[in-house]
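re: that chain from earlier
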Amino acid sequence: MTLLAGFSDISVWQLVAVGVVALIANFIGGIAGYGSGALLPLVLVPMVGAAPVVPIIAISALFSNVSRVLAYHAHAEWRRGLIAVVAATPTCILGAWGYTKLTGTGAAIVIGGMLILSVPLRRLLKRHGVHVNDAGLALGAVGYGVLVGGTAGSGVVMLSLLMAAGLQGAAVISTDAIVSIFVGTVKVSVFGVNGVLTTQVIAFGLLIGLLAIPGPFLARAFLARIPVHFHTAILDAVVLAGGAMLLIDVLR
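^ sequence. v structure.
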């Protein structure tokens, strides 16, 4: 069975829609550091259902995060990144394993709930201006591991932790990408062991990942020209609406 079989029930226009959203989401992610995991479920769930979404995003995120590291490698903070990776990996395994046990309805509830919660969570962390040392970063990363292992759209947690640890701007984006690569590899491995990586999941993950590669480089070129608060407000509105739609559809 070839990877093309993973698109057997998908029209050309649906694939185009996925590609456009993937590029836009990773362009936004290259500026704000998050957005791809929050936007992609909105186009994927109606096409493939809720259950395959987190594994698809996990595969595609490996490509987009490598791209971010290449675009911003000079700003990476490897020591703090390593602290977060070591602390988050065990709980990421637990979260990913738990996700594989969910039904399609359960997956939709988890994804929709996390999307809705990610907006007030980001604003709450920003408003309180929390500051953490290395131990606090490690402790926060333990909780982040559970979320990132079993949900989509939880990247805002690690971004907030890194900012609380003193990182700013491109250093946050590049260090978050480093953490995401290591943790994401573990996550994909857990999905593989548990038989979640179907032909469809792999095909969509590779397609989105390859199309997402230019996003961070385009973002770097426009970073100084686009007001961050503008696209952040739009992103918040889209994520809230999308999460609500997923939950409403489940509860019908």
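The radius of gyration is 17 Å.
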